[in-house]
Every structure is written in structure tokens, then in C-alpha cells.
Amino acid sequence: MALVQNRGAARAQAFDFGEPAPWIVAVVLILLPLVSNGFFLSEIFGQTLILGVIALSLMFLAGYGGMVSLMQLTIAGVAGYMFALFGVSGSHNISLNWPWWLATPMALALATLFGTVGGALAVRTEGIYTIMITLAIGAAFYFFTNQNYALFNGHTGMNSIETPSFWGVDWRASLPFYYLTLLVAGACYFAVDYLGRAPFGLALQGVRDNPRRMAALGFHVNAHRIAAYAFAAFLAGLGGILQVWNYKQISPGSVSPDACINVLIIAVVGGVTRPVGPFIGAFIFVMLRTFALDFLREIGLDGNRFRLLIGVGFLVIVFWSPDGVIGLWERWRRSHAPARPQGGGGHG
Amino acid sequence: MTRFVERYPFWSLLLLIALAILLWLVFATWPPGLEQAIGRKKVFLNAVFNGITLGGLYFLVASGFTLIFGLMRNVNLAHGSLYLFGGYLGYTVSTATGSWLLAFVVAFVVVAAVGVLMQLLVFRYMEGQDLRQTMVTLGLSIVFADLMLWVFGGDFYQVATPAWLVGPMELPFVTAVKSTGETVYLSYPKVRLIIFAGSVVIGIAMWLALHRTRIGMIVRAGVDDRDILAAMGVRIQAVFVGVFAFGAGLAGVAGVVGGTFQSLAPGEDTRFLLDSLVVVILGGMGSIPGAALGAIIVGLSEQLGSVYIPSYAIVVTFLIMVLVLALRPQGLIAAR
């Protein structure tokens, strides 16, 4: 990814337990339900975490693998559609009425398969072509869901999808759902963080920086890339399942090319050099989406111009801070903390 | 061609047989058994003609896209927006002045100017960073789409066909023979045929300009190695601006064509971007003949698919793309 290669490519760093910031964030996230109401929990923070997980899968591919895939949301959509197809939904003639604990792994497996096959296609060409092929896959899936009624119920999509409820807990109620999402998002975050430092992740970063040298060293370049696609597809699938549990419905609109591009915007705005970037990007995106209407009215503009705001913001980030918000923050920290020894072991 | 036949005798034979079957289907009077099996010949012929004329439209959009990509390595994801912008412009001009041809001129000039601005104000500053350029085109496409939604709203628009092009045209293709022995010929909208002829002319003119003129030679050299070209004293920035303007202008013209053929609405930009992507992936990036071949394949598979397997039509196009990527990732007619 040229974007990354220019300034400090994604380098996986060991989790620094001496840093106070991550602990504060963790405590805030866990204690959040004490101070916020249901709307904020599910619409702001739940959405942030779900979109963050989907964008995290893109961060893994783009940051560590150098492959910018625009089909991560499509994979999430496949997981959602498959859950609706195998599980219980309002479209009785389509859904197979499997219980949720059977439909979920099935949907995840199929979404992972979809992402892996898509990835295997995308790695057959070089660099910039990836973005075109994955966008074509994403757009084709969108048009397919629109015109197919046998499996995807066409334009209407699938409604009133049944969500899991067990151990006496309705997992879609805002409090349990928030903790469930937090748990999944946390697990995904640490999985990506760990994998970035594991041999596989290091080899993947080698493939990103110099595929020919890695091939000469005996690494199977394309196998690493496809494996990265498979892992990323699994993450995106998890995000898709959570999304469909949250909304209880899925329609072609949820997998539209615009939505696919949103995921890229989230990842780029947050920064693809570190796993935390996508979550920051998702938070900014969700806040903008929710409050842009009021904000735009406040400054005297038409409230419907949300996408204009997003587009301009994205352009600004691409122009001035290719590493996203993370890059801005790191630049700020570097310029304000010159006394901190480089490469030191943190605090004593 | 002969080299291709020598290298792949099996595929050549298969292609030849497919072509022969297609020609027979188009020209022969269908026996009743066939009509019972797959429907009337008129439906089939109409789908084939729709596919080929739609292919002409796709070629207009995709040739600019592939030219820009081939020379500048810039995947212009705002190409669909340029198409839609050209269409809206054409609609505005043709309703204001009543002149269909003037719409083409205005769409070409204005959209080409937008292309020049994009190259001069944005892409010149990030040369060689293809991914960053692509991101910028993505951002621009979002901004353009929203601006157009702001101005034109979510309604459908259609560019009015001029009076001298309205109506059907009888073609020398037999669709059926009546019981009285009278033969029925295919009648087809005149405007689509004229537009298709126009896009063929543009395609041939582009090929000639690329292969028979000095400017074409410079552009082809730039596709092969732009650094050496710049080192030889060619003002490469001027070439970039020219090619970007021409490619964008073609997208604008295609917008007017699309507005006459079909309709203009938000979302059409994405549709035509997808079609351009598939066309150049099929044909090979940076190749004009490749774009022509890819456009015809996509147009035909889309139309035939939507007639015979309506709920899986897009899958046919997509499967063809998968097949090409699997067997020949550089595209059917690769430029390099």
C-alpha cells in the first residue's frame, strides 16, 4: 500500500502495559453503560464497534498485507444474508429455520469461504488491480441481491430476523448486546494485534514490502495473501453477524457500493497502521452520521449533505495525513515529547 | 491472429464453433422445435441487438477509463461520476436548446474541462502514488455524487431523442415466417443503431489516432515507459492533461448516449463504474481493442442473461470475469 509505505508502514508493536491510555479506554468502555442510555449504547457505541470490526479486517489486509480490499463489507453482508437464509426470518418461504447456534457458524463459514475465493481471485493480479476487482465483486453482489428473489428476496431484503435469546437473556437488548459486541470487538482487536507479531503476520508484512525477496526466501507469497484474506473475511463475517443481530433485517442497501466505500473511509480516516485506527475511524464516522444533520443545520447548510461532508473530510485526510487520525496523533506526540528516549523500554 | 490459432488450436476451434452457432442463430429461420425450447427468435435477436448496442455504450465509457489507466496508472473511480455529469449536462442543454447534437458538444467540452482540472489541481501533485490517487478519485466520486444529487435531485431524467431518429428501422434479419409464407423482418429502434455506429466510428478513429499519428505514438510510448518518454524531451504533463481530458470527455459523451438509451438517476454512476471495471478487467487494462471486446462481451451477457435467466443475470457477467481472471489475469487482449 503506497499510502502506508511512504511514511512508517504498519509495524506491529507489543502491547505496552505501561501506557495509561489503553487502560483508561478499556475501563471507560466497560463502565460505559453506567452513564449512557440505550440509544447511545446501541446506536453510537454498538455501531462503532461493529463497523470498527469490519474496518479492522480491512486494516489487517491493507496495513499488514498491502492489499486494499473494497469487499469487506460485502463479506459482512454475505454473513448477514446467510444468517437470515439459514436462520429464522419473516420470509418464511426462503429461510430454513435453523436455530441460531447452527445458523451462525454456517453463515460465518460461508462468508469466510466467499472472502477467501474473492481474495484468491484478487491476488491473481498486482497491486492497484486489487481495488478494482474487489470493488467489482462488491458491486456485483449488490446488484445480485437486488435482482434475485429466490435467495435474497430482492429489493425488500430479509426482515424480522430472529436473534438469539438464551440463558434467560435477550441478547439483542441494548445492555447485553453492547457487552457482546465489546467482547467480540476486543477479541478481534487482540487477535489482529497478536497476529501482527506472530510469524504469519511478520511474513505477511514481508510480502507487503518486497514480494520478490520473500518468494526468493522460499515463502509462498500468494498463499500468505490468500490466508490473510481468509482471516480478514472471518473478522468481517463476525461484524456482519453482529450487524444483522442489531438491525434484525438486511437488504441490498446494507451491501451497496457506497457502504463498501464507507468501510474504506473509516479505515483510512482512522489510520491503517495500527489495529486501533479502524475503531477511531468508526467512532468519528458514526458520530458524524448521527449528528451531521444537526451540525449542518447549525452552520446554516442543508442537513442532507452528510455524504458531502464525509467525502470532503476523506479528501482532507488523504491529502494531509495519509496515516489518518493515528498519524496526526503520532506526529503530535513526537513534536511534543522530544525528551522521551527512542526505543526505550517505557517507564521503569 | 494466426499466432493465436497456432498456439491455441483447441480454443480457436471452440471459439470458431461458438461463433458459427451464434451466426446460425442470428441468420437462420429457427425450426419450431428450437422456438419451443428457448422461446421466439424475435426475443433472442432483440436481446443480441440490445447487447451489442449496449456494448457500444460501455465501450465509450470504458475506453476513456482504460486509456487513463494505461497511461497514468490512475484508476479513476470518479469515472462513473463523469459519465453521470455528462448525462445531466446533455439533458439540461437538450431541453434548453432542443438540439441533441449540441448536447454532445457541450457534454464533451465541459466534462473534459473537469478532467483537466482534476489532473492539474490534484493528480499532478501525487504522481506515482497510484493508491493515493485512487483514494482521491474515490473521495471525489462521493463529493460529485452528492453535489449532483443536490442539484438534480433523485428523479429520473431522459434525454429526448430527436425527431429524425425516433421510430423503428427494418433490418434484413428474418425473425419468423408466417403460415402464409410471408417473412417477418426484425424492426429495431433507429437511434440505438445510429449511436452504435457512432461508437464504432469513434473506436476506429481512436485506434487510428493511436497507431497512425505522432500524438498517438507518444501516448503509446507513455503507456510502455513514461519515464524514458519524459527523458526524451516530451512534455509528459501536457500529454497527461490531454489524455485525461479526452478520456473524461468521452465519459461525458457516453453520459448523453446513456441518457438517450436509458435514463439518468443517482446510482447510475456506480453502475457504469462497475461496468467499466469489468470491461477493462476482461479486455486488459490500457488496451482499446480490449475495451471493445470486453464491452461487447459484457453487453451481450447482460442482455442475454436478463432475458433467459433474469434473476441471475449479473452472475453470468461476473462468472465470465472470474473465468478470465483465472485463466488470463492480464486480460483477453493485454496491452503489455
**What is the distance, rounded to the nearest whole angstrom, between the alpha carbons of the first and last residues of chain B?**
17 Å
Shape of chain A: globular
Summarize model confidence as the mean pLDDT of chain B. 83
Counted beta strands of chain A: 2
Radius of gyration of chain B: 21 Å
Briefly note the structural class of the backbone of chain B. mainly alpha
Judging by the overall fold, what is the CATH architecture of chain A?
Answer: Orthogonal Bundle
- Please give the CATH class of chain A: Mainly Alpha
Kindly report the oligomeric state of this protein.
heterodimer
The total beta strand count of chain B reads: 2
SSE string of chain B = HHHHHHHEEHHHHHHH
CATH topology of chain A: ABC transporter involved in vitamin B12 uptake, BtuC
Low-confidence stretches of chain B: none
Taken in chain order, the helices and strands of chain A follow as HHHHHHEEHHHHHHHH
Instruction: Tell me the number of structural domains of chain A.
Output: 1
> How would a crystallographer describe the biggest sheet of chain A?
2 strands, antiparallel
Structural class of chain A: mainly alpha
Query: How would you describe the shape of chain B?
Result: globular
Structural notes for this entry:
- The complex is a heterodimer of chains A (348) and B (336).
- Chain A has one domain: ABC transporter involved in vitamin B12 uptake, BtuC.
- Chain A contains 14 helices and two strands, in the order H-H-H-H-H-H-E-E-H-H-H-H-H-H-H-H.
- Chain A has helices at residues 2-6, 20-35, 38-65, 72-86, 100-122, 129-147, 174-197, 199-209, 211-216, 221-247, 257-270, 277-298, 306-320, 324-336, and strands at residues 165-166, 169-170.
- Chain A has a two-stranded antiparallel ribbon.
- In chain A, helix 3 packs antiparallel against helix 10 (221-247), helix 4 packs antiparallel against helix 5 (100-122) and helix 5 (100-122) packs antiparallel against helix 10 (221-247).
- With 336 residues, chain B is mainly alpha-helical.
- Chain B has a domain at 55-273.
- Chain B has 14 helices and two strands; from the N terminus they run H-H-H-H-H-H-H-E-E-H-H-H-H-H-H-H.
- Chain B has helices spanning 2-7, 9-27, 32-38, 41-72, 79-97, 100-121, 130-152, 190-212, 214-224, 226-231, 236-261, 268-283, 288-308, 313-327, and strands at 168-177, 183-189.
- In chain B, strands 1-2 form a two-stranded antiparallel sheet.
- In chain B, helix 5 crosses helix 12 (268-283).
- The radius of gyration of chain B is 21 Å and the shape is globular.
- Chain B starts with a helix and ends in a 9-residue tail after the last helix.
- The chains are: A mainly alpha (348), B mainly alpha (336).
- At the A-B interface, helix 1, helix 6, helix 11 and helix 13 of A face helix 7, helix 12 and helix 14 of B.
